[in-house]
Amino acid sequence: MSNTMAGPTHWDGFEHPAGRVAVGVAGGAGGWRGSLLHIHIAEAASFEMEELAEARCVAGRGIEGDRYFLGTGTYSPKPDVREVTLIEQEALDALARNDPPLQGGPIQLTPELHRRNLTVRGVPLNHLVGRRFQVGEVILRGGRLNFPCKYLEELLGLPVYLPLYNRSGLNCSIERGGIIRPGDAVLPLDA
Amino acid sequence: MTARIIQKLRVAAVAESTPEVRVYTLEHPRKPLLPDWSAGAHVDLRLPDGRMRQYSLCGEPGPQPRWQIAVKRETVGRGGSAWVHDSLAPGTEVQVSAPRNNFPLAAGAVRHVLVGGGIGVTPLLAMARSLAAQGADFTFHLCARSAALAPLLAELRVVCGERLATWFGDEGRRFDAALIGAPEAGVHLYACGPHRLIEAVRAAAAERGWAEAQQHYEVFQPTLDENFKPEPFELRIASTGEVLLVPADRSALDVLRERGFALPSSCELGVCGSCVCGYRDGIVIHRDSVLPVSARQDRMTLCVSRARVSVTVEL
């Protein structure tokens, strides 16, 4: 497969065109405190996600063992911000109650299915482009909003493209690596 | 094109069906159920070097805790079956895709004629299970060299009962494709097995005027056409207008990948359908064994099919 290309293709979050602009614009939410609910990785494109009780984040690379750390992801050949991806549990909850009613009915998009690495609660991800924040001992930089892909829809056989629009999560680079575990606090920095 | 989840499954059991064929039972190490599937579906097994091999599921269709595949050791094959036989044992982990069905039972059919040769009986056994469970009207023609070499014979006898007709060469009984009979409304024909069996069934169906839509075939081997001379052609990317040259000795799939398109594929022989893509504005030379005639006006199989001069692909 062509997507096993070697070599790092990660951008720093603040070098991505979106993150770079956002860094220079005032705003973002402060005063919140969220938590890390789940960590998931997959070793290669299309592989079933596996839940971890603990993960090592490596600056400039990603989460140890994950496809975007290994360069085996669907989008690995494209330079982008993909070291760590996050999604809000609140977005999954909204899909589960069919809110807004954009599809036939509720969609149970469980943390194992959505293919983002971290599922978080109480973290305003859409406000974190161009911001630094902490997950346990690790510091992340919000590079750009995640965008739903048709690939996910195909892989899952669920019509998630439209309902995930604008709440698909956040793509980050790792400023400071370390170990993270479910239950870790997620906190804003510089806010 | 359809992407499918790849799961790491565990071999739960291995059983010998014939001296050449083993039945592998697969289960998820943590989950109680595997993805849902319907009769005729196959999964891809991923070999250690990344190549994929297709095997039809032959157990009970539906969401099940375990899957069964039957694998014949091919002495002159491409190495996949030898790897399976030599490497998979109870407890071994193997990478398996979610099922895809290119060979489904026709909805609304009133009667079904199933013709299976050798290891080609695997998808048909699953079909027979579904049909028997529905109380549907069907006949199963099983062709093999001998009863001892007929894969899944015991299961077929249980599932089909009187509906099973066996054609074993060593008993002097040879299947005559004329037995498919004349086409009638609502009767569907399914054949899977060696190339010559499929060709005999196709010829008999054509001679008797069976409609394309009433005939269903599955062949997990490339179409043999030694006279085909590939020519270079141009691929235009619909979304960008970019034009790529596909040289005579390379596939459209290869050229697209080199250009950075992340495309799914599996068999790369034109049989599995993973890399099927929409096209327009061109004359495509279809060389696959997966797309029905009705789909060939706007879909092409990038791994083997080519175009005259140029074609625009929906990418």
From TrEMBL, chain A:
Residue ranges of every copy of the MOSC domain listed in the record: 50-189
Superkingdom assignment: Bacteria
GO molecular function: catalytic activity; molybdenum ion binding; pyridoxal phosphate binding
UniProt-recorded name of the protein: MOSC domain-containing protein
Organism: Belnapia rosea
Lineage of the species this protein comes from: Bacteria, Pseudomonadati, Pseudomonadota, Alphaproteobacteria, Acetobacterales
From TrEMBL, chain B:
Record has Nucleotide-binding as a keyword: no
GO biological process: methylation
Organism, as annotated: Belnapia rosea
Transmembrane segments: none
Protein name: Vanillate O-demethylase ferredoxin subunit
Domain FAD-binding FR-type: 1-106
InterPro entries: 2Fe-2S_ferredoxin-like_sf, 2Fe-2S_ferredoxin-type, 2Fe2S_fd_BS, Beta-grasp_dom_sf, FAD-bd_FR_type, FNR_nucleotide-bd, MRET, Riboflavin_synthase-like_b-brl
Record keywords, A-Z: 2Fe-2S, Flavoprotein, Iron, Iron-sulfur, Metal-binding, Methyltransferase, Oxidoreductase, Transferase
Domain 2Fe-2S ferredoxin-type: 233-315
Source lineage: Bacteria, Pseudomonadati, Pseudomonadota, Alphaproteobacteria, Acetobacterales
Superkingdom as given in the UniProt entry: Bacteria
A molecular-function term among this protein's GO annotations: oxidoreductase activity
A Pfam family hit: Fer2
Keyword hit for Nuclease: no
